[in-house]
Amino acid sequence: MALIKLFRLSTFLAVIDTLHAGVVGRQCATTLSNATLVANQLQLHYYNHSTGRYNNGRLWTDASSLEDLHNLMLATDSSYIGKAALDPYTDWMKFLNGSYDDAQWVILALWKIADYKTARSRDGSAYISSATKIYDMVAGQWDDTCGGGVWSSTNHTYKNAITNEQFLLTSAAGYLRANNETYLENAEKEWTWLSASGMRGSSGLFNDGLKLGSCQNNGQTTWTYNQAVVASGLGALYAATRNTSLLDQAEVSLDATISSLAYKGILRESCDLTTSGGKTCDHDQQIFKGIWTKHLQYYLDNVDDTSRITKYSDFLGSQHSYVVKYAMNPAYDVGSVWYAPNEGGSQWSPAASASGLEALISAGKVRQYVYTR
Ligand SMILES: *[C@@H]1O[C@H](CO)[C@@H](O)[C@H](O)[C@H]1NC(C)=O
Ligand SMILES: *[C@@H]1O[C@H](CO)[C@@H](O)[C@H](O)[C@H]1NC(C)=O
Ligand SMILES: *[C@@H]1O[C@H](CO)[C@@H](O)[C@H](O)[C@H]1NC(C)=O
Ligand SMILES: *[C@@H]1O[C@H](CO)[C@@H](O)[C@H](O)[C@H]1NC(C)=O
Ligand SMILES: *[C@@H]1O[C@H](CO)[C@@H](O)[C@H](O)[C@H]1NC(C)=O
Ligand SMILES: *[C@@H]1O[C@H](CO)[C@@H](O)[C@H](O)[C@H]1NC(C)=O
């Protein structure tokens, strides 16, 4: 619970240049950044994770503090992405720069903002309709080259794992949200194609994509995130169909990650280096491990079999411990390397911090499941 609160606050951090939602008009961005700093420190310094109260607080001042945190979190309308969603004239093709994997990360963010607003009796419809427009653009990228699949970008040079795994997820999750059969058909069509595409190697891990001419697995890197986004898509398709073979298929990739892409039980991207000098992870790659943890959580959200959930709780708990032990600095920035102490190779960026944050949230959420189910 506490982690979830911290998460919402930190989500806010990323979108600090903001309007205060509909209530008081334009807010000064620096005021809100100071507000965020104070709020974060309030949580860090006083919030007691075991009691769910502020140390040395009072019932009514705690209530007021909770209200403040939520006021702050509602002030996200004018993040760059949020503003685009509220503007009915946004040219999404231009905004997304022809990239259909980027497009689908934006869909997931817009759905989350919409849900947050809707749950608080605010209008989330602009976020939903923008997500629908983007989804339709992605769905339009399906064709028969290599037997099916969506293209990764408008230039039609690559059919890859991530864009198609995301399409499985946005289609299946989109069906669960709107009950529109087109989405379910797309999800089924995507999994049928993806599972037979050859992109999953004999180890159970998905490689990056297909060689265009031959339509064979291109043998490129088995990134961590590819192994969990497919699982969250399969979890959503399972929720729609109750076909448990889909969960078995998800576990193939999740288990292969644990056996092949971790060092002593801690996720390690192939580009993660403790010392400086080698070929390190680029900005995109610095968030992949966190995406793995987040999508494992999304997968588990749809799994109703306790043994399938508890199977992963220790692993997620270990990611949490080692992010805190090795990756986090005293200012709560998180570096890119989790599996060993940083000797100059860990990288510091919003992507690396978000990655660490995702590990902490997923661990917190999954443990909660284990206790309450
Ligand atoms: C906090 O407010 C002061 C005074 O308005 C401003 O100069 C400063 O930039 C703000 N700090 C942040 C982190 O925005
Ligand atoms: C949380 O509150 C309990 C009960 O008052 C107290 O024993 C404990 O030390 C507090 N924990 C922290 C980290 O302040
Ligand atoms: C758009 O894509 C092109 C080609 O991939 C790239 O050079 C450019 O930096 C991208 N622009 C933005 C705003 O991301
Ligand atoms: C196609 O687009 C992708 C993503 O924008 C870019 O990385 C790639 O370099 C482009 N390929 C060509 C041949 O333009
Ligand atoms: C279902 O989704 C498709 C694709 O987004 C859309 O074209 C169609 O209008 C939707 N159907 C309904 C009944 O909303
Ligand atoms: C259940 O999923 C498995 C794995 O993808 C698939 O082979 C099978 O055809 C599905 N069963 C039904 C009834 O759709």
Automatic annotation (TrEMBL):
Gene3D superfamilies: 1.50.10.20. It comes from Rhizopogon vesiculosus. Keywords: Signal. Residues 1-21 form the signal peptide. This is Glycoside hydrolase family 76 protein. The keyword Signal applies. GO terms for biological process: carbohydrate metabolic process. It comes from the Eukaryota.
